[in-house]
Amino acid sequence: MPGQGAPTSRSVLVAGAARGIGLATAQRLAADGHRVTATWNTTEPAGGAAHEPGITWRRCDVTDPDAVAAVFDGARALDDPFDVVVANAALVRDRMISRMSEDDFRAVVDVNLLGSFHLARAALSDMARRRWGRVVFVGSVGGSYGLGGQTSYSASKAALLGLARSLAREVGPRGVTVNVVAPGPIDTELIAAMSA
Question: What letters, b where the CB count within 10 A reaches 16 and e where it falls short, cover 101-132?
Fold first, then answer.
């Protein structure tokens, strides 16, 4: 049994881990000895990430509740349900609101907000039953401050704050935490693709 204060190996899901923050999170958690399942959808894992030790890769469209359920069912089938879920899957379709279509707005909200909802809903019953769990939504400073030309992205990330606060009240008494990490600009492929 580990000594007091020693880290415990956990079963972790990192959704949206093909590159950037998600990939770095999955790699760090695996390096720390956790059992990591990492997901990707339209972008395959960067470089040799698909073959890194300690990370199992699954394709998953977080906007599809059946696809999300399949990932969770796979972990349960191995008797290793997720202790920690990091909801990092994100979509950006930047443009001024006068040029933003409803389809583009909806697509961003579906991935960034609805996808996070699907992940949390799939995770929280197991976590509450075990009386321990961690859900982390990856937000953005844009959710607090708003970003010009990013109304859909900023709105979806702001909504994660309300989602997390409500869920924390629901499951906090059962030993489960729900938080939002809201980074500013990070030198990732997503940032590199943006205009100045």
Answer: eeeebeebbbbbbbbbbbbbebbbebbbeeee
